[in-house]
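## Example record

The block below lists the input lines for one assembly entry, exactly as stored, with component labels intact.
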Amino acid sequence: MTPERLARGQELIARYPQPQSALIPFLQYCQEQDGYVTLQAMKDAGELVGVTPGEVESIASFYTLLFKEPAGKHIIQVCRTLSCSLRGADELQSYIKRKLGIGHLESSADGRFYYEEVECLAACDRAPCLQHNLEFHYDVTPAAFDSLLEQWLTQPPQPAMPAE
Amino acid sequence: MATFEPVIMKGIGEIDLTDIDIYERNGGFAGLRKALREMTPDSVTAEVTNSNLRGRGGAGFPTGRKWGFLPKDGRERYLVVNCDEAEPGTFKDRMLLEYTPLQIIEGIAIAAYAIGAEQAYIYIRGEFLEGSRTFRRALAAAASRNYLGERIAGTDFSLDLVVHRGAGAYICGEETAQLESIEGKRGEPRLKPPFPAIAGLYGMPTVVNNVETLCYVKQIIERGAQWFAKIGPEKSPGPKIMSVSGHVKKPGNYEIPLGIPARELIEEYAGGLLPGRTLKAFQPGGASSAALFAEDLDVAIDFDSLGAKRTMLGSGGFVVMDDTACMVNCARTLTRFFEHESCGQCTPCREGGQWVARMVARLEAGEGSDEDLRVLNTINNTITGTNLCPLGDSIMPFLASVLRRFPEEFAAHVAHGGCPLKQTPVGAA
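Predicted structure tokens for the full assembly:
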């Protein structure tokens, strides 16, 4: 484990009475840097909190925001649950998939985009909604998506899954 | 227009309540100061008990009684604050987090004082990154003025509050799954008893409270139990935020006095239905609640009145479906949700959830059969009531209610080989 990771891990452990509570925050921190939860991160996490890498994998696999393989620089998660579905999410989803040329749970060949249809994001009053790298966007029409996409592609690179 | 003066939503959208100066100028921390200076922990608990406040996270359990379950045995105890809002149709906790985080912090400090906790954890849904950032800034501001930390406001009471971000799992909103998740494990609900009050976080006595509940705790301490108890029905009193979405003119969060008719919420608060549409169904309490229909519009919105209608207030996620909504499509969306979110521990939820979702998806695609309908109409008792936690019990209520009310719509999907309704997207002519 790199000294930086060890130091961050110890900081996280200090927040809790038991070290294992730092496991998920530590994986989130590693994911922010690496783009996904690497095998090395799982080994480091296990070493840090005292569980086997296998247990770490079992725990990490439970949570949908921990990616076990490279996803993309732009993680686009569109709500598919009832309130958004009633207000045009299905049309938005078809549009985005056509536009990006990828389907649900797929990454683009160049590694730029990852697309996922997710469950309710708690923004039902401004449906349909989506998250781009965990940032909310509301009332997204196909035209609005086009301008968002343009914006994302011109802004400086940022972590796809920020830790804090 | 509705006349109820907002209480915990007061100022939202008008002033920046995330700014601690503005929050303080608008009554911020008056409740905490009163609790710490004028009240004992037991009298704070008594005040909350006397208010009849029932938890706003979904289960509606009386908050004061929950606090009272903690054993006085000298063990360390914890307050866990549930901000893992993910019940489809509910978006009030995210608003509170983003717009009035200091009110949440004040409620946390009061509750921690009442139960004797010096350590609190707030579990913020992983998707609420922006909200968690706002909350961390508010936490730092509150700590800098000694509303958190050592010897708060010059008293003997100290409180450390840690922000714990979720990582994507609806089930972690269930209190024992949330405790597992904070302990760094898979978010699988525990077998109860023991209840968290006896053996909660790290095996210690623990109270888990929702953020909306804690905002009302602050208000109750400031204004008194009687103020709260006098609003709405006696057994289900107080204001409550209803998240209204779907086919209404003005979707949004509305703070209502409990006990108003559903009709008033739709027509006066949410601006009514879209032009030319008629009401087909509504869910009063999130994806887990059974649907009600046009003939039920006079039902009072409170825990007991909705319970008497075999549905629930739940978290207050109020979803309106008009005549353009296909009930099979709605049921497909929601059964898929529960299939996706089952933690997998209990067979009826894991396997039953998948089976039901597959059947409903088949019906929607026009590939369903009369046998699918027969199974869907009889499977309820096999799934409901046979699981460790309420998720398994949430799979069937909506589906069963719309199957009962609109059997012909489901049958038509079999006969017609797909949806006979021409769905008109919102906004289309």
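The longest strand of chain B covers residues 239-246. The beta strands of chain B are 78-83, 119-124, 160-165, 206-210, 239-246, 252-257, 279-283, 292-293, 317-322.
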